Every structure is written in C-alpha cells, then in structure tokens.
Amino acid sequence: MGRIPTALAHRTGPDAGPHRKEPILKQARLKELQADILVVGGGLGGVAAALAALRAGRRVVLTEEYDWIGGQLTSQAVPPDESSWVEQFGVTASYRQLREGIREYYRRHYPLTEAARNTRELNPGGGHVSRLCHEPRVAVAVMESMLAPHIGSGRLRLLQPYRPVAADVDGDRVEAVTLAHRDTGEQLVVSAPYVLDATETGELLPLTGTEYVTGFESARVTGEPSAPDEAQPDNMQAVSVCFAIDHVEGDHTIDKPADYDFWRDFRTDFWGGNLLGFRAPNPRTLEAAERTFEPNPDDDPLAVVGDQRRGGGDMNLWTFRRIAARRNFTPGAYASDVTLVNWPMIDYFLAPVIDNPDAAVHLERARELSRSVMYWLQTEAPRADGGTGWPGLRLRGDVTGSADGLAQAPYHRESRRIKAEYTVVEQDLSAAVRGDKGAVSYHDSVGIGMYRIDLHPSTGGDNYIDVASCPFEIPLGALLPVRVDNLLPAGKNLGTTHITNGCYRLHPVEWNIGEAAGALAAFAFERGTAPRAVAADPALLAAFQDRLTAQGFELRWPDIAAY
C-alpha cells in the first residue's frame, strides 16, 4: 500500500462533481494514513464492520463525525428496535455480545434493585419499544470496550470527530478519502485497498461517483405494490432530532423557541389534528389515535415485555421509549424515570435533508421542532386533570451528551442507497405477497433480520406505510455496487428500496450489514480479489459463508411466523 501515484489520483468532492476527474497533487500540509480497510462512519454498521475486519487481522482506520460512536443507538439517541425473538436468535454473535455487555455494565456499575439485578433479560428502562431500553452512554462504553484491545494493539486507528469531504478515485476504484476535523477543519488523507461507507446518509457515494438512488423508486421499475407509478427521488422519510427528559420538582421551562407559534399551529390533512398534540395516526391502521402521557407512572418495569407482535408500544408515550425506570434502581438513586422522546410529533417532513442545498437549514428547523415539542409539553400540553403543561419536565442533555439538551445527531431513517447487483424489493419479504412461503431465500445470504416495513411520514406528503414482513435474509448482492469494485455499503446504504429500507434500517440489521461488509472486505483482502468475485465464485462464496457461520452469523431463519 504505497502512496497513490499522482498520475492516477483524481478527486471528487464539493469542488469537483462526482464524474469530473482532475489530477491532484497531495498537499504537503495534509497528513496521510494508510490501512488495509478504511471504514468511514462509526455508527452501528461502522463499529461492526471494523470489528469484523480486525478479527481477521486487518489494519483498520475507523472514522466518526460525532463525539460518540454508535450512531442511531447513541449519538442519535434511539433505543434499539429489535425483533420479538431477539433473546433467542436472529442476530450475530457480536451483536449479542453488545446487548449482554450493556446489561452487564448496569449490573457492575449501577445501583440496581436485587430484583432487577437478578433479571436475566434485564430491561433497564422498562420501555415498550424494545426488550433492552437503556441510556445511550452505556452503549458507548460497551462499544469502546469492544474496540479498546485493537486500539491498544495499534491495529485500529479511531479518528473523531472527522467527516469525509473528498475522495481520490481511479476508474472503478476508490484510492483514498480526505477527512476534515469537524471543529478545526484540519484535513488528512486515508488510503486503503478497501473502503466501507458506514456514514448515516451514504456520504461517500456522491464523493466517489458511486451510482446511487434516493427516495421512492417507481413501481414500473421495482414492481412493488406500495410504490408510486413514477419515481420520487426527493420523497424521503422524516428526519427526527430526539431528546431525553425526566420530571422533577420545579419549573424547568425552556425559552420559547423562535418558531414555536408555527409548529404549535402546524397540521396536515392525514394527521388527525395538530402536529403538536397527543393525537396522531396509528402507523398500522392510519386511523387517528390518542396517545397518553403521564410522567413517572407507578408501574412495574420488570413486568414490561417489549414485543412488536403486540403492537408498536407507542400508545403510552412516557413508557414507550423509557430508558431508565426509577423502580429498577435502589430508592433515591433516580429522582425520576428518564424517557426518550422519539414520538410522531418530532418527525420533520417539510423537506429532505439529503442532496438538498438547504439541508443545514432544514436540519436546524428539525431541531427547532424538537425544542417546540419540549416547550409545548412544558406549557400547553393537555393533562388528564384538565390543566396544561408539565413545567417539571427537564431536558437531559447530560444523558444525550449534548450542550443544547437534544441528541448530538439527527436520526436519519433513510440514506442514499447504492445501485446494487441485487436490490431487495417489497415482494421479496412482504407477508401479504409471500404468505406462507416466507421471505425469498437468497443463495448468497450473509445474515438475517426482522422488522415490519415501517415508513414514517415523508417529505412527499405520504402518511405512514406499515406492512407486515416475513423474517428476511440479507443478500450479498445488495452489498455490491454495480460498478465500483472496492467500496462497500456498511449500513442503511445497501441495495434496498425506499420501501424495504423500512425494515433493513433497524439496529441489529444495520450491525449485521456492517459486520458482513467488514468480513467481506477482509476476506477479499486475504484472497487478493474483489468483493464481487467472492459473490460470483461458488467456491469462494461457500468459503466466505462458512467463515461467517463460524463467527456467529445466522444465515437462515427457523420456521417462524411473520408479523
């Protein structure tokens, strides 16, 4: 892995369109790093990809834009959405290590009650969305501990906070990526034979000229029952800025947000009322349904069972995504429950934030919407006793690791997606289409996942699209760009459609995608071949799948029912 020959190096980025190639000279002021595998993006897929490559003995550079690794689980503050069978099967061994590590961290470091400590499937928050709701920084600590031995050995270089700003491309290969420090602007260049895009929105795809799609594909192309006749590339799922709250004595009302009046009065035809309200569509029926909200109910968190088969769990907003249930801890340890606000009313769907020159404006408007929701909860939200507002609600920026009280990063449900060798479509896994046959089984499976097709309201004015799914597989072909040889997707940017992204985007699936991509890059490096050659050669594919299975990947589902 020598220095990139300047005669072969071409840059794409903000100053050069993705298909415009101009020779560049490496600037002396730019620091250069080299690795066997470069993973850009330290979310769940990126961490899993790095771990897989490191297990194979590769030298890895892993980058992350935010202060915390972990993406949707941490900096975006979204408790894990998982299948109903997650405690038995359906995830990789390393994802299970992450989950059990989180529980063990609580047992070692938190003042749990004896009953909570002795609960095998401990759910610290007693939230209904998942069997494991927890504070984001615990997941950060566990993932950092998983990476720590590799950092200590020198085989892993973790760069934070860095984001990609340009790429050097030679024909169908990505030679290097230029990264900029988020705060100082200092740049460095990382070269590697294999590059993985684990960013939240597929940032490397336009930078490298890799072919990709956004938004809704056309039903004429995909044949999907839920797709429109014409493609809608700017029609993407809402982005959300989550935040954590508790409720204690006193008045903790925040300053009135500048856009509060706009958001308080905002409504759309399909919502069933104002956006800032407890009435919102039921994602599965689309009928307007009234949510309840009451801080610190006197429930038993150990009795809560997060099971998506029983419903979304979102009718009680306080316990829906509760991440710390005070009754799981010794008396007085927590003055209040802590709950995570990722509710229908914080979904920002006025405009897309991908490939939009005004993306920064709309991301700030999404943050303003979240601040407006908080202010509304404190001042005007209707209470069951006839009053309005809970001034005792308090933003917990210390829980989300942010100065302004909101999550460090926006929650992107949808990414740019590669044009792939194989694209997963709705009819591959829709329970309505597949029936008793179950999801399509792929000969090149590199993992499995399960979640309903769950699309939030979108920038094209669509209501929820929520479709029952069959437990599905992850085809290797969906990880292979149609042209570029050495760039792999390692998150929500694989070959799915707008619709099937709705079930491939969740925590354990993103982890599996990233882990498979990291393992594939390491396998290709070892064999001296291209990732697509592994898919094309039956013997190589079988050897790769055997390696995945030996490392704790599950490639097929047992006989279980859709929901």
Automatic annotation (TrEMBL):
Chain segments carrying region Disordered: 1-20
SUPFAM superfamilies named in the record? FAD/NAD(P)-binding domain (SSF51905)
Q: What is this protein called?
A: FAD dependent oxidoreductase
Output the Gene Ontology terms for molecular function.
L-aspartate oxidase activity
Q: Please give a single GO biological process term from the UniProt record.
A: NAD+ biosynthetic process
Which InterPro entries has this protein been placed in?
FAD/NAD-bd_sf, NadB
State the superkingdom: Bacteria
Give the matching Pfam families.
FAD_oxidored (PF12831)
Q: Name the source organism.
A: Glycomyces harbinensis
